[in-house]
Amino acid sequence: MNHWHGLALLTGALIAAPALAWNARGHAAVAALAESQLGADARAQVAAVLADDLDRFGQPSGRRSLAAVASWPDEIRAEATRTDPEAFRGWHVRGNPVCSDRLGRCPQGHCVDQLILSYSAVLRDRAQPLRARNEALKWVVHLVGDVHQPLHAGVNPNGGRARVVLAGIDLPPGASLHSVWDGALLDAALAGWQPPAQPVPAPALTADGPTAWMLEARDVALAHVYQPLTGFACGVRLAEPLLLDTGYQRASVPVIRQQIERAGRRLARLLNEALAADQPPASAAR
What we know:
Layout: H1 3-14, H2 24-35, H3 40-50, H4 66-69, H5 72-80, H6 112-124, H7 130-147, E1 164-166, H8 177-182, H9 184-190, H10 209-226, E2 242-244, H11 246-274, H12 282-285
Helix pairs in contact: 1-2, 2-7, 2-11, 6-7, 6-10, 7-11, 9-11, 10-11
């Protein structure tokens, strides 16, 4: 099946899903773009690792593609927070100030860039149990998408919870800057979009690659999420609700598409390297 035809079928069913990061459509777009660039070794390993995939309830999921499993971390978080509101808190983000070079907190390595590194190591290690590698794959696919969402990488004094109004679009009460970049603006960017037929491969990974991607996304947040807001200045809390006019909405489209493309290319490179047939043992890879 053509990957983008499969994505259209999948996201049509998920369009009403709640937005928790990039929404389900965004994560599926990143994953499908990456899957279209996998080499034979990585494709075979993905098939083996997903062969007995389980859903958030621990039941066979029947999911066999990266796009189909891309939102599993959001699914298990939604289930876990029914009993523990703190479950997975902070795992999908890192609160780097947009007007500073200071990194945000990362308690016990539980933040988006560091978790990509730790789960990539599990995925790479063929000595790990298949279930551990399965879950690591799903986390890596999801978190690489998350780290490219600008508001998962950069914050200002209002934070992503700032209340917003979208000109010409009805939003649920309490809609936030973060939620509209996850949802309404992302949906607008994906509407009618076709990714490059021959995307430029991402460069070889470096040890600090995920952190570099995150800091790039933080800079995107400053330049394209915050600076266009009326009255924005570093260190200043903006008056709410924030009005996102039609010019702001149009300008977000190429930014979001760029971030989706970056995420897809980089995820493909990460998986092709981690799942290569000649992958050295974990001890030699460190």
